[in-house]
Amino acid sequence: MKLIEPKDKLAVTPNLSWAEDFSDGTVKAIGILEVLAAIGLRLPPIVVFSVS
Length: 52
What we know:
mainly alpha
C-alpha cells in the first residue's frame, strides 16, 4: 500500500497519519523494506521444503 498510494492519501488514513511527518521517498522506502521483510519471512520455509 505504501508503494502505490500517494503520501497525501496515506496521511488521511487514521492508522497512517504518521506519513505526514516523512518525505515521499521515506514512505516509499518503508514500503519497500516491508515487502523485502515479507519475502525474507516467506522464502526460507519455501526453499527448505523444495530442497528436501
